[in-house]
Amino acid sequence: MSKHFFGDTTVLLGRSLRHITRSPDTIITTAIMPIAMMLMFVYVFGGAINTGSNSSYVNYMLPGILLITVASGIAYTAYRLFMDMKGGIFERFQSMPTARSSVLWAHVLTSLVANLVSLVVVMLVALLMGFRSGAGVLAWLSVGGILILFTLALTWIAVIPGLSAKTMEGASAFSYPLIFLPFLSSAFVPTDTMPTVVRVFAENQPVTSIVNAIRNLFAEQPVGNGIWIALAWCIGILIVSYVFAMNTYRRKIS
């Protein structure tokens, strides 16, 4: 059964990736907004923001921009799922001897590949803007692992509206709160500059933990328990979103 599942997922993943390669503008569009934000924050607001550190502002805010890149990219996953649902692709696959969950996993893995490409593009622009890190291989691998888990978690969230939305706009609109969430975190300014109520929320939401862990890894600072909190958030969101997404899928195809 596992061999059947992996084989079906590989074939369907190839189908989804071909769609991506035929419309690379989706990856470009995903990267444009975070890059525009990065340019604006660094060159317009950066001089007025005191982060309390000696590093450049692009170093400080890059982790938050990376998370916004992922949050922007998963809207396309919901859109592609919605179009497949409306186009009857799922019904066709059901009539074939394919593993049912392989259809969803193909979309999820396609999202992972597309978002990783967008993240690389954003990182390259950040390097041109002056981002520097002396982090070692292990730290970079840790950052990559966190971003992969974060992408998978948000992608499975995207699966839910992709399957259940009534309109194309509704399928992708869910991503707006996720894009906004980093602004209520330590992504762009230290949380101790915020009003009490906002600060309490910011310090106890997942983005702050994830941003702080990535920032400390880039800066070669001790991560302490912060990295475990960040991983716990990513894995917890991934598990919950996966369960809800699979339940939604079963109701749709039953």
Largest sheet: none
Distance between the termini: 21 Å
How many domains comprise the coordinates?
Answer: 1
- Compressed to H and E, one letter per element, the order equals HHHHHHHHHHH
- Beta-strand level of the residues, as a percent range? under 5%
Please mark out the parts with pLDDT under 50 across 5 or more consecutive residues, or reply none. none
Taken from the alpha-carbon principal axes, the silhouette is globular
Oligomer: single chain
Give the number of helices: 11
Mean pLDDT over all positions: 85
Q: Number of DSSP strands?
A: 0
- The percent range for helix content is over 70%
Cα-based radius of gyration, to the nearest Å: 19 Å
Structural class by SSE content: mainly alpha
Pfam families: ABC2_membrane
Transmembrane segments: 27-49, 61-82, 103-131, 137-159, 226-245
InterPro entries: ABC2_TM, ABC2_TM_bact-type, ABC_2_transport, Nod_factor_ABC_transporter
Subcellular location: Cell membrane; Membrane
Main attributes of the structure:
mainly alpha, 0% strand
Layout of strands and helices, then pairs:
Blueprint: H1 2-22, H2 25-45, H3 57-87, H4 89-94, H5 100-128, H6 137-164, H7 168-173, H8 175-180, H9 196-203, H10 206-218, H11 226-253
Helix pairs in contact: 1-5, 2-3, 2-5, 3-5, 3-6, 3-10, 5-6, 6-10, 6-11, 10-11
Overview of this protein structure:
- With 254 residues, this protein is mostly helical.
- The chain has one domain (2-253).
- Helices cover 78% and strands 0% of the residues.
- The chain has eleven helices and no strands.
- α2 packs antiparallel against α3 (57-87) and α5 crosses α6.
- The radius of gyration is 19 Å and the shape is globular.
- The protein starts with a helix and ends with a helix.
- The relative contact order is 0.14.
